[in-house]
Amino acid sequence: MSERRWHPMLGEWVVTATHRQDRTFLPPPDYCPLCPTKPGGFPTEVPEEDYRFVVFDNKFPSMRQPAPEPAVAGHDLHPVAPADGVCEVVLYTPRHEGSLGALPVADIVRLVRVWTDRYEELGARPGMECVFIFENRGEAIGVTIHHPHGQIYAFPFVPPRIAREREQAARHLDRTGHCLMCDIVADERADGRRLVVEGEHFVAFIPFFARYPYETYLVSKQHRASLSELSGPEVLDLSRVLKDLLTRFDGLWQVPFPYMMVMHQAPTRDAAAPGDHLHIEFYPPMRTPQKLKYLAGCESGAGTYINDTLPEVKAEELRAVRVTP
Amino acid sequence: MTQQADHTREQVPSPLPVPSDAVPPGNETMTRRTIMLEDGRSMTFYDFEPEKPAGATAGN
């Protein structure tokens, strides 16, 4: 059962997806549903013996096309709508072990091309407004299958976090005539204390306003609205900086570093706004190897984050991690 | 779970340079092949092949 229910106090949609309670939960490696189906082996979700990259509809989607009619009747105070949308799974590798950061740069280049193709394909579907590429890594985030994979959602609306970001960018543009993210990148590069990795075309830094101890932004230094606008050299540099950053995450405490990775780029229904600027945000939930940064009362109930650390200090820690090419 | 339909492999435009530090240098062509699973979900396989040099033909 899945539907959209309107939150009248926050002015945003909540998606119900009760069938997801039954989804696969931490299967043993021998029964991974995302590995290829081997001859004589049990049938996994991928009915072939091998693959490079595979993208498929999530078996337990929170949104789908066509979406079923809502199971409840809405009314003026509580509007409901079908949970129309797309939920895809992206498998990075046929191997069960590994991670995005462990892929060779060449494979990350290929993955960026796959992401770009999905962004354009899903964004062109009728009714879809926003293509959202993301990855949850680690049990601390709630990952239920360890096989290296990411996800892509296509929403029939612009989600509130991205909508608010665009509103702020529009205000900044009106006030200064500049792209907000371009100004943030220029400021971080001029300051330098919060930079983590800098390539020719992309830069990674812990922003001045970070809410999590190791919250990191990976941003195009040139103004690019989406993956579709990247040149070949820019895709290559994005891949190199991404791998470098993820290697530093894992090297920080010599353990697989949990994170949420989310890509923000121009919505797809209309032309990009002048303030749409491609970037990837990472929200690692750990503040020490053993301690989580909880989104507790103040964060969840008031919407104000308390960061127990300074971005300048945490960026220095990540810069100090030794990365060998 | 088995596949029900196998669509024609299609080539995705715009080859990109592949970094020489990880695989043999040169451009690659990305192709995708979509199948339908028994439960109606679609699954797309992406593959990458070195771009054929201009003028190359089968058997070259």
Task: Please provide a brief summary of the model.
Chain A is α+β, with helices and mostly antiparallel strands. Chain A contains six helices and twelve strands. Chain B has no helices and four strands.
Stretches of chain A where pLDDT falls below 50 for ≥5 residues? none
Largest beta-sheet characterization of chain B = 4 strands, antiparallel
Overall pLDDT metric of chain A: 94
Describe the biggest sheet of chain A? 9 strands, antiparallel
The largest inter-chain interface, given as chain pair and residues per side, is: A-B, 30 and 25 residues
From the alpha carbons, calculate the radius of gyration of chain B and give it in angstroms.
15 Å
- Helix tally of chain A equals 6
**Radius of gyration of chain A using CA atoms only:** 20 Å
- Mean pLDDT reading of chain B: 67
Q: What percent of the residues of chain A sit in helical stretches (DSSP H or I)?
A: 25-40%
Tell me the distance between the termini of chain A. 48 Å
| H/I helix tally of chain B | 0
Q: How far from one another are the termini of chain B?
A: 39 Å
Can you give a write-up of this model?
- The complex is a heterodimer of chains A (325) and B (60).
- Chain A has 6 helices and 12 strands.
- The N and C termini of chain A lie far apart (48 Å).
- Chain A has helices spanning 105-123, 160-176, 180-191, 232-252, 297-302, 311-320; strands spanning 2-7, 12-17, 53-57, 80-82, 86-91, 130-137, 149-155, 195-198, 202-205, 216-220, 259-264, 279-283.
- The model of chain A has no long low-confidence stretch (mean pLDDT 94).
- In chain A, β1 and β2 form a beta hairpin.
- With 60 residues, chain B is mainly beta.
- Chain B has strands at residues 3-6, 10-18, 26-37, 42-50.
- In chain B, strands 1, 2, 3 and 4 form a 4-stranded antiparallel beta sheet that branches.
- In chain B, a hairpin with a 4-residue loop joins β3 (26-37) and β4.
- The termini of chain B are far apart.
- Mean pLDDT of chain B is 67; it is low at 1-7.
- Classes of the chains: A alpha+beta (325), B mainly beta (60).
- Chain A binds chain B through residues 43-48, 51-57, 59, 104-107, 109-110, 113-114, 117, 232-233, 235-236, 239-240, 325, and chain B through 1-3, 12, 16-19, 21-23, 28, 30, 32, 35, 37, 39, 41-48.
